[in-house]
Amino acid sequence: MHSTDILLKTLNEEGILRLTLNDVKKRNALSEAMLTELGAAFDEASDDPSVRVIILSANGPAFCAGHDLKEMTAGRSKPDGGRAYFASVMSMCAGVMQGIVNCQKPVIAEVTGIATAAGCQLVASCDLALAAESAQFSTPGVHIGLFCSTPMVALSRNVSNKHAMEMLLTGDMTSAARAVEIGLVNRVVSEDMLQAAVLEMAWKIASKSSMTLATGKRAFYAQREMPLSQAYDYASQVMVENMMARDAEEAALDFKFLLLVLAPTLPLITLPPA
Asked: What's the whole-model pTM score?
């Protein structure tokens, strides 16, 4: 994987890929170029067996400030007032967000600074998110007469209706502490400990079977859209297929071996008389 000026890529020996937004002057806005780079990076990582977990981080004071407003403003100069251009950009952005969800590898957002509008959407689209204490989140489109409809899709799939609507209707900044309370992020840590905390989580996940992780992630998002009975039928089928897979078979043998090794050291459990 090759880095570019606006998206840095590093892959370590444990299979942890770090994607770093690096368009600092634009506050890591989701320009057409950035969306293209991100979409390609997630597609490539999804199919790369050497990648086990993806961390999405950013350089500069902003994690991501949403769409590139200069590009959006320039789009209005088109003969149709920008309709076709806006539709194209929204489609690109939706493709990237769905690419994260559909990526076979778990994606962890490492959030520093602000994540606003489509930047908040980016965080919400990741499977997991850890944030620095100073991080802030918002969907501020309502302030300029533009409801954050596409960020709403990801946001409403992470937090309850009332919490999502509060962010969408007020456009207020949400602190990292509040974000963890409402379920937008998993955990908040001090900024100097954030990278270590994210790496610890990534290492823990990377140690698991890639096949199992891909199966589980795909099943999680699929069953969430189904009625209850259909979800159980689907999940049962996934479990059966998972148990028939070689990874699960080998894991079961490893577990039996572990029990044999540990058995002499385990305390005996004496049941009380009937």
From this structure: 0.90
